[in-house]
Amino acid sequence: MTSDRQLLDLAADGDETAFRILYDRHRDAVYRFAWALTRSEADAEEIVQDGFLTLIRKARLFRAEAASLRTWLLGITRNLCYRRRGRDAPPENAETEAVSRDPGIEAALIRDQTAEAVRCAVLLLPEPQREAILLFEFEELSLAETAAVLGIEPNAVKARLHRGRARLKLLLPSLAPQGKSEAL
Amino acid sequence: MNEMERDRELDWMRAQWDPPRMTPSAAAEVLSAYRREFRPRRLRGRFWLPVTAAAVAASLATALVRVRPETAYRPVVQPRIIVLSDGERP
């Protein structure tokens, strides 16, 4: 299988087939991350486009020995999401946002729409926890990769994950396995 | 050790995780945007270079034909000689 590095170089030289392979390989992860940060499908689609074009424009800056292409691409995506909202990172007070039961979660649970309830719960997490949970728990990046995307130390990621997991279990207690729900 | 395990208690949530997907039209738009911005670079080398080379070669050939010096050859025009024999006299 052709490596991301090779594909990126070819795509930067105008090879559409290489771009297509690269795009098919990473677009879903990029889109899910953009969607979770913006909470908007339309915004996420625009960010995916901007993200991939930025990737090709900056292809010469990519160092495969420093990070995987997906990590780099997710970092670009994150920057685009925050830049779109006129800032560089989640707001300072985002970690301390109060946890509340979202009406969307309640409605989804009543309709027995578990997937929708999970979606609502993830989107309800404060941004710092949401991005950490999404990358580590759902996209299955390593701790080091998650830290690289978020631009923070691995220990800070651990703290966000701990708080994010606890909140998720609190938001969806009725769905969690019996007796395993953790208090915040 | 810096590594951390995924939370097994969230396995059920991972199984239910179903975020939206990109629409096909948006995916196609990304490819079009790529083509608009990056594809011409490739065409410049692969298409326009040979075309330009052929045009230059054609111009050179035309110019060469035009400035070619005239040769010393002249068509020979023979004077017309009419011989009248006696037998033909009226």
SSE blueprint:
The complex is a heterodimer of chains A (184) and B (90).
Chain A: H1 4-12, H2 16-38, H3 41-57, H4 69-84, H5 103-110, H6 114-124, H7 127-138, H8 143-150, H9 154-171
Helix pairs in contact in A: 1-2, 2-3, 2-4, 3-4, 4-8, 5-6, 7-8, 7-9, 8-9
Chain B: H1 11-16, H2 24-66
Walk me through the structure.
- The complex is a heterodimer of chains A (184) and B (90).
- Chain A is mostly helical and 184 residues long.
- Chain A has helices at residues 4-12, 16-38, 41-57, 69-84, 103-110, 114-124, 127-138, 143-150, 154-171.
- Chain A folds into 2 domains: 1-88, Rna Polymerase Sigma Factor, Chain: A, CATH 1.10.1740; 92-184, Arc Repressor Mutant, subunit A, CATH 1.10.10.10.
- In chain A, helix 1 (4-12) crosses helix 2 (16-38), helix 7 packs antiparallel against helix 8 (143-150) and helix 8 (143-150) packs across helix 9 (154-171).
- The longest helix of chain A is centred in the N-terminal third of the chain and has 23 residues, at 16-38.
- With 90 residues, chain B is mostly helical.
- The A-B interface holds A 11-16, 19-20, 23, 27-28, 31-32, 35-36, 41, 44-45, 48-49, 52-53, 56, 114-115, 117-119, 121-122, 136-138, 140, 142-144, 154, 158, 161, 165, 168-169, 172, 175-177, 180, 182 and B 2-4, 6-7, 9-10, 12-14, 16-23, 26-27, 29-31, 33-35, 37-43.
CATH class of the largest domain in chain A: Mainly Alpha
N- to C-terminal distance of chain A: 45 Å
Fourth-tier CATH superfamily name of the largest domain in chain A: Winged helix-like DNA-binding domain superfamily/Winged helix DNA-binding domain
Broad shape of chain B = rod-shaped
Tell me the CATH topology of the largest domain in chain A.
Answer: Arc Repressor Mutant, subunit A
Main sheet properties of chain A? none
SS-derived structural category of chain A? mainly alpha
Rg over C-alpha atoms of chain A, rounded to the nearest angstrom: 18 Å
What is the percentage of strand-forming residues of chain A? Answer: under 5%
Mean pLDDT of chain B: 80
